Amino acid sequence: MIGNVRRNTELGLLVLGTMFVVGAYVLTTLPDDSPIPNTTGPFLAIIVGLPLLAHIAVRRLAPQADGMLLPLASLLNGLGYVFIVRIDEARADPDGLAGLQSIWMILGVGAFIATLIVVRDVRMLERYRYTAGFVGIVLLLLPLVPVVGRTINGSRIWVSIGPVNFQPGEFAKLALAVFFAGYLWEKRELLAINRAYGPFSLPDPKHLGPVLLAWGASLVVMVSERDLGSSLLFFTLFLVLIWVATERVSYLAVGVALFAGGAAFAFNAFGHVQERVDIWFDPWGKDRGFQVVQAAFAMADGGVSGRGLALGSPTKIPVVESDMIFAAIGEELGLLGATAVLIAFLLMIGAGLRIAQQAARGFERLLAVGLTTLLGFQAFIIMAGVTRLLPLTGVTLPFISYGGSSLLANYALLALLLRISNDSAERQSDALAAQSMTEVGT
Amino acid sequence: MSKQIRNIGVFLAVCYAALFVQVNRLTIFQADELKDNPANNREVERDFSSPRGSIITADGRVVARSVPSNDQYKLQREYPTGELFAHVTGYFAFELGSTGLERSYNDELAGRTIDFDLQELSDLFVDRERVGDLTLTMRNDVQELARQELGQRQGSVVALDPRNGEILALWSFPSYDPNALATHDFNAAEQASNMLNADPEKPILARSYQDNFFPGSTFKIVTAAAGVERGGVTEDQPDYPARQAYQPVGAGGRPVGRPIGNFDGATCGGTLFPIMEASCNSAFAEMGAEDAGADAMADTAQAFGFNQDVPIDLPRPAGSSFPAAPEFENDSPKLAQASIGQNDVRATPLQMALVAAAVANGGEIMTPHVVREVRDDQGEVVDRIADDDVWTRAMSGGTADLLRQGMISVVQDGTASRLDNGLEGFEVGGKTGTAQIGSSDSSHAWIIGFAGPPGEAPSVAVAVIVEAQPGVSEQTGGTVAAPIAAAVMRQALEQPAALSGQESGDSDSGEEQ
Known about the structure:
The complex is a heterodimer.
Chain A: H1 2-29, H2 40-61, H3 69-90, H4 97-118, H5 123-127, H6 129-141, E1 149-152, E2 155-161, E3 164-166, H7 168-192, E4 194-197, E5 200-203, H8 209-225, H9 228-246, H10 249-269, H11 271-281, H12 290-302, H13 325-358, H14 362-386, H15 404-441
Antiparallel strand pairs in A: 1-2, 2-3, 4-5
Chain B: H1 2-29, H2 31-36, H3 42-48, E1 55-56, E2 62-68, E3 75-78, H4 86-89, H5 100-104, H6 106-110, H7 114-122, E4 133-136, H8 140-150, E5 155-160, E6 167-173, H9 179-182, H10 186-198, H11 207-210, H12 220-230, E7 240-243, E8 245-246, E9 260-261, E10 268-270, H13 272-278, H14 281-303, H15 332-339, H16 349-360, E11 364-366, E12 371-375, E13 381-384, E14 390-393, H17 397-413, E15 427-436, E16 442-452, E17 460-470, H18 475-493, H19 505-509
Parallel strand pairs in B: 1-4
Antiparallel strand pairs in B: 1-2, 2-3, 4-12, 5-6, 5-17, 7-10, 8-9, 11-14, 12-13, 15-16, 16-17
């Protein structure tokens, strides 16, 4: 019952979102006088076909799952795709990123469906929590391995195996979310024991081990891979989950204190951290905050309604196709378009947290919270960096930025959320059915 | 646990609200500040590859236009007349910015003005280039003749219509080729700019309106106006004594400073017209210093436009200056020298043309302008520059009439006798000037004047300066500058048939291709 309503809502929303994306695509790629490019057919097939394919998979594999997440994700993905097409065009580069991105989108939806197929029951993941933890750590540290690790744009977060480059950190965050959720749910009672120190009540030092470990790991990531954004993301993920699991504010306090200490240490010890912060305070100096300054100029040009699709100058912004893509959206779609993106992410956060609230079992709740935090906070970190609300730290904008690792990981994340949602809805309807059976029986 | 989850929701919502506020700041509240940031060249770049209107002279010559280019900017700005209108059109360059009309009428040329926007509503679905073409008041034939007559001598020629302030010619030598600066080869443009800026003759500077000089004896028109209006000078009196020099006097009638001599040690004197005809230094020095006095001189100079911002529709015009009255206190020699256009008096050639225009136009100086109207791509006039704007009243109509007679007599019987060369049948008035440069033996040769059909308001006023001529003689202005002014006025008075050609500005551009 609920499944039908949800699936039909999902389909309706998908159609709406797809119509918007197709419209945007047409506006972007069809200038007044040039003929219709012969790539239009395949591109439209991807824009229209992939969401439908994902929808059909959900109908088959998770029919009772939440109906909001997929349309929102596919709207954001479609919007990002249109902007990547548009950036290619501005660079006069027909063999640019759009073709690759469409392959990543196909693989992303493939990862989405595969995750739904493989993970038939979330409890299965709970069993493999330590394996997940191990895999997560390995993935996180993989870029540091001499032969395969590569440094691109100053961050050592890439791995090259043969012709394939990817960012293992994007997958590590999923594995770590599974591990944290499983581990913390298992140890929550131990961890929740507080000890009073005068007026303060703090966690028992012997249980602080995991916190310190997570803190240390995120420091390692920040220092050795120069990846401030991911480091902040992992630590936040851990803090949020330990807090939700133990319901102890003291962990938050300790965590924030550790974070402040770590940040102060990093600021003083590492030039690149200091530079980021300096630029954040004053980006205007010559050759200083070129990225954020160009992003600010772009958004100022955008105004309320934007310059219009294909009418801005996105190529003036460095790395506009990935980290800085939000600025291009602000330029061409203005305050309205940028706000729409914010709202879409906020709605996804809302849907994710609702899934967490409705999940019956602790592990599922923690995992849903963790995945939602990853998605919502990562989007926040990069958009805040682009708009100079926070120092700029390079992470991708989920579903929108160019990039295979990011898309695959985020589609898998989406599939896990839908799986959790489906399972709790199924249990609920089972319970309802059982109840009505009993009622009939009496 | 659900309380914590809700709090995470609240936390993230707060984060996103802060983000929303920040996006608002960037797109709206700080937007103007960000757009004005010197590092922000987005608007320039946009203008640079957008369609842009042409600039066309009153007689239909295209002097600036955009033509397709094969590079990323799609359009190349081009100046078919090269140096001829460079000081008027200026240039439209990427890294060097823009000058001249390209600067002062940027919004019109780019089609950004309100008139266009309003029109846009009805034209929303019509594919039109919404740019504005400028039609100038200036005439290619007059400008071309000014260049030809001045030749390779440093100087300026300004011709305008005294009745409405329309500038007909605004030429100064040396000039420069704006095409060299507007090229998309930015290295070449920078080199060209560096060379022009290093040139001691400053070809980029429009001497005609962006530089000022000693006006010399042409300033005596202002002194005469002060004398007539506030010093009791009439056609008949006073009768200044014939002498070689005027000795300034201080308090108690004691002589102060050095005497002010006539050129070549000549003896001259008499009433207003004879001293104008002879350009008599001794008489005008006395008129300014004693009959008019410091206050009247300073006030009158200001009424003529000295010490005021010049409201011309070109960027960065230079002003003209006359010392303030208190500076003459206890310094009557200074006042006497200023009265003959020396000492601290400076005037732009444009200003001196306006002095002649004031006399020709009953004492009123109309706001000078080079643009007549802005037309859209359909040739419809969307903006017309007012031609009945009075900038300043220099003197009363009666004074102007008297000085007009005086200037006519300067041509008929005085130093400006060559000013009516080829202007038979017209009423021509003028005043020569020789402005000694410091105490050197070289001088600027000046002439100002007007011409028109007899009995009618003169339809052309001119100022010509030929800089740094050898020798210091009152003859210089009359011999060197007057023939140039005469030729220019003759051309201006000939109404060329091509004037109606302004409707189709493109017809003339054909010959350039």
